[in-house]
Design goal:
CATH topology of chain B: MetI-like fold
Shape of chain B: elongated
Distance between the termini of chain B: 44 Å
Number of helices of chain B: 11
Largest sheet of chain B: none
CATH superfamily of chain B: MetI-like
Number of strands of chain A: 0
CATH class of chain B: Mainly Alpha
Structural class of chain B: mainly alpha
Strand content of chain A: under 5%
Order of helices and strands of chain A: HHHHHHHHHHHHH
Order of helices and strands of chain B: HHHHHHHHHHH
Helix content of chain A: over 70%
Number of strands of chain B: 0
Shape of chain A: flat
Distance between the termini of chain A: 9 Å
Largest sheet of chain A: none
CATH architecture of chain B: Orthogonal Bundle
Structural class of chain A: mainly alpha
Oligomer: heterodimer
Strand content of chain B: under 5%
Chain lengths: 304, 305
């Protein structure tokens, strides 16, 4: 067990280095980031000064070490467009994103667990087909379009909900519903297929033969074990959640990370975009690490 | 004891109708399967025809603006037959732009699928067959690309390189090769252990030859299924990026950016966003169904994906 955890932590550490290297390389791919900072009023000397102050005249490995050193000190750099540090921008946006993503996650997980179990226990019935249909639609329809259709239906045609922006609980309904529909299909499929596998296992058959009531068989014996597969996909689910949130924040004018990211895209404000990408990547890697470690506790067969 | 036996008996008897039901549903699924092929193929054919013959099929120039015809509604919502699906805020014909958008969508997704499946497969075969530290290195790199949400990385690239069709193809390729590598490497590990690979080694085939002529043909089915399933995902990602302004720059008619065009006019002109979005949904639906159908035919082991 200890050996497994040490290897996993080391792997995650290597991946974190790799991730920072990847993002650093991508940003340097344009050659010189100062081309994005120039304006017509600058003299060549000004540009050279910017280069030197940013350390861009140094060799790439040294630049990378400086970049990593700053990151480890919590210095995420400054926005090129707004006269603020990136960390101050992110600390304002993060709570908004977490609120939206959190509710979307809760709704989507609750729904997909419930619907996944219902579909698996009523295999090939109209219920199962209905659930599959919902999953297929959620997977194919672009979430940003679904959001706009929701706005048209529930804010324009029948104005029962606010159009966009954050605010009271009513403001959450449409973004959360759209986000939930976006995350739902993947998790639903996992729950359904994992539940079908478990329902087919020997101990579930034994429980039925023993005369355990069907409700208990499904929710106590089968459901708990069927949860393990979706749990292992937690990192991927979080990634999907963030992607969905980024897109829908733009649709619903929600001032979170995605909104900041796209505003920065329009101003080609690369430090902001760079840090958001890094932040999300780091969180996904850490979630994967935690999942793997907790999984090793749950299932003693997992060993190196 | 007796009670248990009785219950066992009921369980066995109870299995009767269930088996019948399965058989019945198997027959139903068979017909459904064929529809699963015919309907998606019809939509994909329509897409390909629209993409190839866009200049001939589109009733208007997708870029021509018209002040008088701004925000004209579709024909079934009080509009005229001149603009069947209405016009946008610059008076451009939506139907023509949707048809031209098919070309953008198809060209970008096919280019990305071609690049990613080639790169992903080569890395997978090398990692799986050669093994050792090279395998470790390739799989660690794959892990990293799995960790960063593709859309964010693609937005970063659009910021760095500036949004363009070329940037979009590079960005989408960089973010979507990893699943091929992870999936196909697993297959390669199995094929590597088969007798014919050992025999090829014995008669002195070079590693490159073994990988190309003995391993590759055995993973082609998986590759085909993955590629088809990923077309839908790439089209959605392309549309998403274009919607966010990190994709095809205006005024080129891409479905995603057409949805953006109409976002601020939901109250007055819902059709600007509605039809391009519908086109994305239909095409993705078609490729997803086709991918599922192909998977059932060629490689049922991939069921979980």
């Amino acid at each position: 067990m200890g050996r497994y955890i040490i290897i996993r932590v080391f792997q995650t550490f290597v991946s974190l280095i790799g991730l920072s290297l990847l993002i650093f390389t991508l940003v340097r791919m344009s050659g010189d980031p100062t081309t994005l900072m120039q304006n017509s009023a600058m003299t060549p000397q000004d540009i050279q000064n910017i280069r030197e102050s940013l350390g861009l005249t140094k060799p790439y490995p040294v630049q990378y070490l400086i970049y990593m050193g700053d990151l480890l000190h919590g210095d995420l750099g400054r926005s090129l467009v707004q006269r603020r540090t990136v960390s101050s921008m992110l600390s304002v946006a993060l709570p908004n994103t977490l609120a939206l993503a959190g509710w979307g996650f809760i709704v989507a997980i609750t729904l997909s667990l419930f619907l996944g179990v219902v579909a698996a226990t009523h295999r090939d019935s109209w219920l199962d087909n209905g659930v599959k249909f919902l999953a297929i639609l959620g997977q194919a329809l672009p979430s940003f379009w679904v959001g706009i259709v929701f706005i048209f239906l529930f804010a324009v045609k029948w104005p029962v909900l606010p159009v966009s922006g954050p605010g009271g609980p009513a403001h959450f309904v449409m973004p959360v519903a759209t986000l939930a529909l976006f995350i739902l299909p993947g998790v639903l499929r996992l729950v359904r297929s994992s539940m079908l596998d478990v329902l087919d296992s020997e101990y579930v058959k034994l429980a039925r033969i023993k005369g355990v009531p069907e409700r208990v068989v499904i929710w106590k014996h089968a459901f708990r074990n069927a949860l393990i597969t979706p749990l292992t996909a937690a990192g991927a689910i979080f990634g999907t959640l963030i992607v969905g949130t980024v897109v829908l924040e733009v649709v619903f004018a929600w001032p979170g990370l995605g909104f900041v990211d796209i505003t920065a895209l329009q101003g080609r404000d690369f430090p902001v975009v760079q840090d958001i990408t890094l932040l999300v990547g780091v969180v996904v890697l850490l979630i994967n690490l935690m999942v793997d470690i907790s999984y090793a506790y749950i299932d003693p067969r997992i060993r190196y | 004891m007796i009670q248990a036996k009785q219950e066992l008996a009921t369980v066995t008897i109870g299995a009767g109708p269930a088996v019948l039901g399965q058989r019945r549903s198997a027959r139903r699924r068979h017909i459904f399967l064929e529809l699963n092929f015919v309907l998606p193929m019809a939509i994909i054919l329509l897409l390909v025809i629209a993409a190839i013959f866009a200049p001939q099929l589109a009733p208007w120039d997708p870029l021509s603006q018209s002040l008088e015809a701004r925000m004209a509604p579709p024909v079934f919502a009080g509009g005229t037959s001149a603009h069947l699906l209405g016009t946008d805020r610059l008076g451009r014909d939506i139907l023509s732009r949707v048809i031209w958008g098919a070309r953008i969508s198809l060209v970008i997704s096919l280019a990305v699928i071609l690049i990613t499946s080639t790169v992903g497969t080569v890395l997978a075969i090398v990692a799986g067959y050669v093994g050792g530290w090279l395998d470790g290195l390739i799989m660690r790199i794959t892990d990293i690309f799995f960790a960063v949400p593709g859309i964010l990385l693609a937005i970063l690239m659009a910021v760095i390189l500036g949004p363009s069709v070329k940037t979009l193809i590079i960005a989408l390729s960089i973010v979507s090769w990893a699943p091929y590598t992870r999936q196909i490497r697993g297959e390669v590990l199995q094929v590597r252990e088969s007798g014919f690979v050992a025999q090829a080694k014995i008669i002195g085939c070079s590693p490159v030859r073994i990988m190309a002529t003995h391993i590759f043909p055995n993973i082609v089915n998986t590759l085909l299924v993955l590629a088809t399933l990923f077309i839908g995902i790439v089209i959605l990602a392309e549309a998403g990026l274009s919607f966010l302004g990190a994709g095809v720059p205006p005024p080129t008619p891409a479905w995603g950016s057409m949805v953006t065009d109409g976002r601020d006019y939901v109250q007055t002109a819902w059709w600007i966003s509605f039809f391009p979005g519908l086109a994305i949904g239909l095409v993705v639906l078609a490729f997803n169904f086709l991918g599922d159908w192909l998977r059932d035919k060629l490689d049922p082991r991939l069921r979980q994906i």
